[in-house]
Amino acid sequence: MKQTRTGLLLVVSGPAGVGKGSVNNGLIKRNRDIRMSVSATTRPARPGEIDGVHYFFKSENDFKRMIEEGAFLEYMRVFNTHYYGTPKSFVEQELKEGRSVILEIDVQGAMRVKEAYPDAVLIFIAPPSMSELKTRLIGRGTENTDAVERRFATAYKELDFAEKYDYIVVNDILDRAISRVEHIISAERCRSSRNGELIGKLIGGRKEL
Amino acid sequence: MKQTRTGLLLVVSGPAGVGKGSVNNGLIKRNRDIRMSVSATTRPARPGEIDGVHYFFKSENDFKRMIEEGAFLEYMRVFNTHYYGTPKSFVEQELKEGRSVILEIDVQGAMRVKEAYPDAVLIFIAPPSMSELKTRLIGRGTENTDAVERRFATAYKELDFAEKYDYIVVNDILDRAISRVEHIISAERCRSSRNGELIGKLIGGRKEL
Questions:
Q1: Residue A144 to chain B, least CA–CA distance (Å)
Q2: What ipTM describes this predicted complex?
Q3: Does residue B190 belong to the interface with chain A, where contact is any CB pair within 8 Å?
Q4: pTM
Q5: Cα-based torsion angle of the residue sequence B90, B96, B97, B98 in order, rounded to the nearest 10 degrees
Q6: Cβ neighbours of A101 (radius 10 Å)
Q7: pLDDT tens per residue, range B58-98
Q8: CB contact under 8 A, B1 and A203
Q9: Edge-to-edge order in the sheet of strand B72-78
Q10: Average pLDDT of chain B?
């Protein structure tokens, strides 16, 4: 009997600029059995965004119908405008086929997922220091000073949630952070709560021997 | 700030013949910051056994004095004859210096350690199958058929405890089993319950920035 290799539902959060995207991209490149979940949204596509790759772009009517059908693992409405949600079908299909799925979502979404799927593994990516986070935010060069300050202030609020996650991975050196997440996946597969069937089969053979 | 690298108290159990010793030896050879704990006992040394290496050999009076002094992390008396125990001082000193310590003890001892040290990480080494376990037990060639049968029957009782452990590692291929334990150590260092200080320091800097 081999070690359990079920797919895991991984929730990865962390403040803007911490490098969540780089960690997740690294994981996917290094592991063929890990996939990113694609969110659905009612906001319009931005230039360059591809339907089904960056988001599933939905009309508000379609999104509401999906809510009624229970098609979301979690969803939210931002500032009374656009909806965002994680479609259940993709995630469940991948898990069933033994692959792990990464949800890159915010702290509120992470808490909702944990409630709905207690087996989910919540990973918070933390910066090595707040000044390093600020440097990375500025270094992205995609936002003006106001936006950087706003994101930086939000980072503190997000860090308040870190201890509600199962794991905290410091993204000091990207390769190390990716390896840590890989080790978490490997370790989680060994958790006794995920190996009851294995022990059951070992003990179940008692009469045969 | 770097990922927490505190020492972990690792409890490794598993049925006779499963290869606990080989896994632990591999861990120690591959990781300079992991040590084996040495148990104390009142049973006489067997030929080849070295005091302080295989066991700390103690008189019954010395052992009882150590019990009174609270010097044991856990201890037990086997069949009203010999005492066995884990001296606290060595373990605590190693953990303090950031090294991890492995206790290779039985399921009863493991439960007592978990009660005294809830932070301990309990790992149960399981065989890939019961017939493979029997093959390994016979292959050791150190015991007669009766002893093999006795140990094999005990294995089932031990497996009943496996789900009380934090992790179950199948020793199918030795190198893989060792890697799994290494991944567990790496993952446990990322557990949010062990990284409160790190987050505290990140948030604590709020006023400075």
A1: 18
A2: 0.90
A3: yes
A4: 0.91
A5: 110
A6: 22
A7: 999 999 999 999 999 999 998 888 999 999 998 999 999 99
A8: no
A9: B56-57, B40-41, B82-87, B72-78
A10: 92
Chain A residues within 8 A of B193 when measuring between CB atoms: 163
C-alpha–C-alpha distance, residues B40 and B71, integer Å:
11
- In this structure, what is the dihedral angle of CA atoms A188, A55, A67, A83, given to the nearest 10 degrees? 110
Give residue-wise pLDDT tens across range A81-139. 899 999 999 899 999 999 999 999 999 999 999 998 999 999 999 999 999 999 998 88
Alpha helix stretches (DSSP H) within chain A: 20-30, 60-68, 88-96, 107-116, 130-140, 145-159, 174-190, 196-204
For A205, which of B130, B179, B180 is closest by C-beta distance?
B130
* Partner residues linked to B11 by β-bridges: B103, B122
**Whole-Å CA distances, A142 to A47, A107, A158:** 15, 23, 21
Nearest CB to B202; choose among A130, A184, A202: A130
Domain range annotation of chain A:
9-37+100-207
- For residues B125-149, one letter each, b for 16 or more C-beta atoms within 10 angstroms of the residue's C-beta and e for the rest, the string is bbbbbbeebbebbeeeeeeeeeebe
Interchain contact B153–A (C-beta under 8 A): no
- Tell me which of 1.10.530.10, 3.40.50.300, 3.40.50.620, 3.10.290.10 is the CATH number of domain A9-37+100-207: 3.40.50.300
pLDDT digits (tens, 9 = 90+) for B90-117: 899 999 999 999 999 999 999 999 998 9
Bridging pattern class, strands B40-41 and B82-87: antiparallel
Nearest-by-Cβ selection for B209 from A126, A130, A165:
A130
